[in-house]
Amino acid sequence: MIVEQRDYHVYTGKLAELVRLYEAEGIPIQEEILGGLVGAFTVDIGALSTYTTLWRYDSYGEREERRAQLQADERWQTFLAKVQPLMHTQQNRLLVPTAFSPIR
To answer: Distance between CA 57 and CA 5 in Å, rounded?
Structure first.
């Protein structure tokens, strides 16, 4: 099992709009295709104007397959056209749980 952490750094003043769009449009598409949503977060202390999601996958192969399906989906492409202008950078990390992690 792996967890993907995706951080989207948003232009100042645009975070509420991005979160609204993800809640209304993005997350429903992602949950249908990706499954495994662990959580969606904003940052209160640290790198402000950041939207973070955590996604659980059984393997790297499953992640690749599901992400490819998402990118090929026309609804997702339409959604991306709305949110990409709100973001200035993105960072992804693949997290591998330890043997004692409650999520594994």
So the answer is: 11
Quick one: residue 13, left, alpha or beta (phi over 0 = left, psi -120 to 50 = alpha)?
Answer: left
86 contacts 14 by C-beta, under 8 angstroms: yes
pLDDT on residue 103: 87
In the chain, beta strands by DSSP E: 2-10, 37-42, 50-57, 87-95
Interval 18-44: pLDDT, tens: 999 999 999 999 999 999 999 999 999
Asked if residue 104 has pLDDT above 90, the reply is no
Is 67 buried (19+), middle (13-18) or exposed (0-12) by CB count in 10 A? Answer: middle
Residues forming a β-bridge with 10: 87
